[in-house]
Amino acid sequence: MAGDYWEDAVYSVPPLAPLERIDATGVFDWIEANFSFDGGKIDWRLVSEGHAHWRIDDERVMAEKVIREIRERISAGSAVEHAGDGLSPYGVRYSADDAGSITNALLEIPEHHYFLAEDRAWIVVVSTEGDLDVLDRFNP
User: Fold this and answer.
1) For each successive 10 residues of the chain (140 residues), what is the average pLDDT?
2) How much is the pTM?
3) What are phi and psi of 50, to 5 degrees?
4) CA 124/CA 92 separation, integer angstroms
5) Is residue 138 a contact partner of residue 75, using CB atoms and an 8 Å limit?
6) Which of 20, 24, 37, 117 could bond to 91 as cystine, CB 3.0-4.6 Å?
């Protein structure tokens, strides 16, 4: 198949097709400026206040938990920014109205996922190994 599978088959169809594309570099620059790393992952041991961690091996349960965590944090009129660290060709921005279906579709892409409030008040990180980390930076 010619072209980029993720662009052609995933990002060009609903619910991801109409999303605003963003440069994922800005998301990763912010993450790198605000967190310490252990290897290629955020070193969560160095984050204490406002941090929660779960280990979830069931993909369906993981998706439900991630969607719930994002919905609890996003307010009407605000947006979530998503960047994936592997197969996603760019970041995307989406609103609270579509948070469930879009988050679920993004989680289908096998990569580490970074969901952030556009004002950076919180971050939800999902690893392919089954780790879910949530940090409320301004609500410890």
Assistant:
1) 76 94 94 91 90 97 97 92 92 93 96 95 96 80
2) 0.93
3) 80, 5
4) 15
5) no
6) 24
